[in-house]
């Protein structure tokens, strides 16, 4: 079986190299070669002598003709930021596939990992599905469940999944590949939240609404591609890259208020459900530990951080108390 891999990032390189080594790679379709990461991937493919085609979404017939010329059995999309045009989906029906990082139909959208990490999920899925007219709605061919470590960041999970993709595709091929019967996705329910591409609002901390674990997970989800979870102090935007819920009295202080500054506890801030240690903060002047930031800018207990403007979104039902208790130890 021969596959074409459609991508735009070197995160797909482990899969490309594995298929190439097993002589099951027909070509690589590369999108957005203006980025440094894409250029590096193009260089790697050229060095290996891989058939490389730069995709132009405005010229789908070129891609269709290329697939027919190579007689590739399927095109597998991964880490791709655009949707294939309807003409391609129709022409290559059943042969146009995508790897999505969620248990579809949960978290359909451009960045499922962000929302899974931000909600404190302990696991994710690699899901190979057929591409349909509606994004991420096609029938499912193969799935694998994978764990998310409580301390994983967005980029960390992406790298982990990247390393798992070669075995994932190998297992799919061994199980029957294109001969496997595709299974329709279950009916979309209200609990199945969309995974839209996060913006600055999604990365904002609302001290009044978010608990310790909410902020802890949001910082992980925003690290590093959004620079951290945003909040403000004296009208300057700060970015929280790492935080830890701790066992410490909040003294009844309002959420967002500094509870304590000093060794060995660090910079402690009250939340509505406990106390959070701000471990790593990024701002225009550089990256600081929470304690060094507080000492450098002469913060004092009782001062209050401000929320960053965000679009209110519904909290995940059922807080993971076991995760919270573990982090507080």
Automatic annotation (TrEMBL):
Q: Which residues are in the Formyl transferase C-terminal domain?
A: 203-282
Write down the Pfam families for this protein, in alphabetical order: Formyl_trans_C (PF02911), Formyl_trans_N (PF00551)
Which InterPro entries does UniProt cross-reference here?
Formyl_trans_C, Formyl_transf_N, Formyl_transf_N_sf, Formyl_transferase-like_C_sf
Which residue ranges are recorded for the region named Disordered? 310-329
The record places domain Formyl transferase N-terminal at 58-157
Q: Which domain of life is it from?
A: Bacteria
In this chain, composition skew of type Polar residues spans 319-329
Protein name stated in the entry? Methionyl-tRNA formyltransferase
What is the native source organism of this protein?
Thalassolituus hydrocarboniclasticus
Give the lineage. Bacteria, Pseudomonadati, Pseudomonadota, Gammaproteobacteria, Oceanospirillales
């Amino acid at each position: 079986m021969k596959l074409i891999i459609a991508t735009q990032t070197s995160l797909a390189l482990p899969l490309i190299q594995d298929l190439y080594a097993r002589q099951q790679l027909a070509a690589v379709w590369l999108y957005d070669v203006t980025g440094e990461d894409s250029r590096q991937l193009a260089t790697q493919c050229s060095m290996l002598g891989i058939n490389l085609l730069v995709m132009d979404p405005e010229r789908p017939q070129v891609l269709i003709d290329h697939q027919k010329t190579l007689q590739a059995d399927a095109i597998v999309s991964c880490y791709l930021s655009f949707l294939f045009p309807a003409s391609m989906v129709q022409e290559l029906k059943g042969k146009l596939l995508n790897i999505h990082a969620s248990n579809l139909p949960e978290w359909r959208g451009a960045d499922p990992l962000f929302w899974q990490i931000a909600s404190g999920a302990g696991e994710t899925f690699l899901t190979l599905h057929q591409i349909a007219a509606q994004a991420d709605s096609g029938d499912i061919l193969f799935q694998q469940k994978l764990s998310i470590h409580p301390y994983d960041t967005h980029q960390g999970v992406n790298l982990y999944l990247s390393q798992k993709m070669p075995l994932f595709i190998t297992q799919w091929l061994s199980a029957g590949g294109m001969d496997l019967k595709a299974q329709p996705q279950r009916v979309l329910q209200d609990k199945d939240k969309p995974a839209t591409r996060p913006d600055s609002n999604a990365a904002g901390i609302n001290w009044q609404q978010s608990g310790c674990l909410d902020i802890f997970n949001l910082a992980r989800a925003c690290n590093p591609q959004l620079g951290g979870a945003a909040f403000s102090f004296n009208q300057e935007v700060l970015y929280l890259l790492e935080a830890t819920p701790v066992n410490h009295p909040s003294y009844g202080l309002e959420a967002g208020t500094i509870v304590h500054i000093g060794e060995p506890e660090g910079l402690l801030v009250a939340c509505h459900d406990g106390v959070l240690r701000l471990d790593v903060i990024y701002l225009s002047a550089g990256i600081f530990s929470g304690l060094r930031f507080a000492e450098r800018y002469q913060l004092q207990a009782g001062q209050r951080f401000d929320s960053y403007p965000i679009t209110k979104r519904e909290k995940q039902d059922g807080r993971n108390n076991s995760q919270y208790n573990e982090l507080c130890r």
